[in-house]
Amino acid sequence: MTTCDVLIVGGGLVGASLACALEGSGLRTVLVEAEPPRAGAAPDRDGRNLALAAASVNALDALGVSRLLATRPTPIRRIHVSRRGEFGSVRLEATDYGRAQFGGIVAAHELGNALEARLAELTGLQRLSRTRLVAVHDAVGELRQVEVETNDERRLIATRLLVGADGTGSSVRSLLGIDYDRHDYAQTLFVSRVQAARAANGTAWERFTDSGPVALLPQSSGDYGCICTLPTIQADAVSALDDAAYLALLQERFGWRVGRFTAVGRRVAYPLQMLAARVLVARRAVLLGNAAQTLHPLGAQGFNLGLRDALTLAELVTQAHAAHTDIGADDQLQSYSARRQPDRDATIGFSDGLARITANPSLPLSWLRSLAFAAIDATPSLRARIVGAAMGFHIDGPLLARDPLLRPASGEATR
Question: What global pTM score does this model have?
Fold first, then answer.
């Protein structure tokens, strides 16, 4: 039987980030991954893009991941938000806040490759690939035993802390018996890369419609990463459209702010839902990332929130270990839950609320939205609050997400 301090189930972006954040902590860490290592995954020009908040860019720099990216994240220098058929818009410029950018855009597969390369450098990590979780036993004393299976061979792992970072369909969450709330938006997200008459220049566009949002994210090539949301009942018909017909639909939904759309790459469809675990922790166990909450992509906060989960947990357990206290004790995990709750509640509320409100076509709400957009655009304090949240900076946020000059020097108190 293997014994460890931290057992991470799930080798995706959040689980891998947690493993990186624990390097150098002195904790014995095991990472269980259902898939084999993904180093060198072939580029997918039309795959998912991630909008990294400035705080996430800071953290990936500090974790040693950014230097392993094939290209630096494409800067988001300005943000433009509007709704089709309504007056009012919100325009944000990074230089107005003394910054060169609000964050950056990176292809999900590129970030995955960089994290894989960083994992290969870690000396304090044991990896079990092609391995799945099959059972979680009750915690006894300072350990919780779990059962995993690799190539039809089962083994026991005893851990002081079990971390579920295994996505929306989390086995850890299910085996722990943690209930959750789910909302099906009855929407499908189409992801693609598009070209337009006006090349991307650092502006991220968010366009709301009755059928859901359309967003354009700047790419270093001058193309745009595009997401187009449609009612799920229309998904099959839209999937069957040829490129010219799809571009016409996109033009009608988004408008002409970047000129005519001229080309589109491969389209991939994803059904949209919101899922939120009712609790984040159990005896010697914690949920992170999509296992804890899966968000509507509006606002692009899913990975950013999950990364803050991972960094906060790493920070707390590293401090506890340094102080020779139990990293998986109930009070330790309740401290983690309490610290994450405000950020989690606010981000889920923002994402879910915006998805529902902006898709409502009622005339009174249309006027209220337009007035709200105009008020935000004209009020510096309101814009500043939106900017702070969009950049991922929170009062009790993880240290590694802060700007380097604002982090405590080595040896200083961290809280």
Answer: 0.89
